[in-house]
Amino acid sequence: MARTIVKLGAVEYCFGAKSPMSPRILILGGSSEGFKLARMLEDSEHFNPLTSFAGVTKTRRPVAGDSRIGGFGGAQGLCDFIIINDIAALIDATHPFAKVMKANARNAAQMAQIPCLHILRPEWEAQRGDNWHKVKNMDEAAAAIPQGASPTFLTVGRTELASFAARRDISFLARVIDAPENLEDFTNLELVLARGPFDYETDIAFFRQHEIACLVSKNSGGEAAKSKLVCARELGIRVIMLNRPEPPGGEIAQSVTEAFEWLEAQFHAA
Ligand code: NAP
Known about the structure:
Strand order of the largest sheet: 1-2-5-4-3-6-7-14
Strand content: 15-25%
Bound molecules: NADP nicotinamide-adenine-dinucleotide phosphate
Structural class: alpha/beta
Distance between the termini: 25 Å
Number of helices: 7
């Protein structure tokens, strides 16, 4: 399908040619679920998806249907966008740790009086053989790394690395999609640029090659980054696990299928 790209200030739009008669569904992207739902909606005859990205990563995966990139300007900005663009329902498919956007989505949908659903995949649960230490924030995570646990493998995203710079006694390997900026002083940090999904064979080879001594992870849930936890369990490695922020109020689906069914029910489209 031919696509048109329009740039309005900092925001970029990419439009296809689906019928504007189908309900326009705004997906707040940032997770694999957002991509999957966009594909399902684009393939269905009932819905017209528009996916929004914050624009945090430099390289983006292509998404089915229309898309836009850039913040809205808080809950009020999102509410205005919903009204101006005749959005019929809002699906928050941001990452489980994107706390601000989840709250903005709920508030904006309430103000604009449209239905809103959060997709929140289940958390990972510790299993027999796991050695997890749960923490509430990055500073606690940095402090919880045992002395001598070098190298520690950081899988927390590039914007969260600064908290670990205080641990001069530890060497770090950090897996990130894009290289962070302003971390010149963090000399005991080595970057591994990679984008998920990650598989067990690659991860276990990596853990063995680098003799990883400790793993720091957010409790993101899902399959795409789970294999590192299997590796840590098998190798008896301590995992510092960041608890999720409080779930947003409002309606929650645990999967893309549930979200699609919710939309069908909202619009009697089954
Ligand atoms: P956040 O703290 O919840 O949101 C910060 C601001 O980014 C929001 O206020 C909003 O700006 C803008 N934003 C976030 N998601 C957006 C979207 N889908 N479309 C347009 N604007 C968006 O989020 P974050 O933790 O910084 O994460 C930023 C993005 O990266 C999110 O989309 C998230 O899904 C994704 N991500 C986050 C993590 C993580 O661990 N936090 C991991 C993987 C992916 P305005 O107020 O101006 O609208």
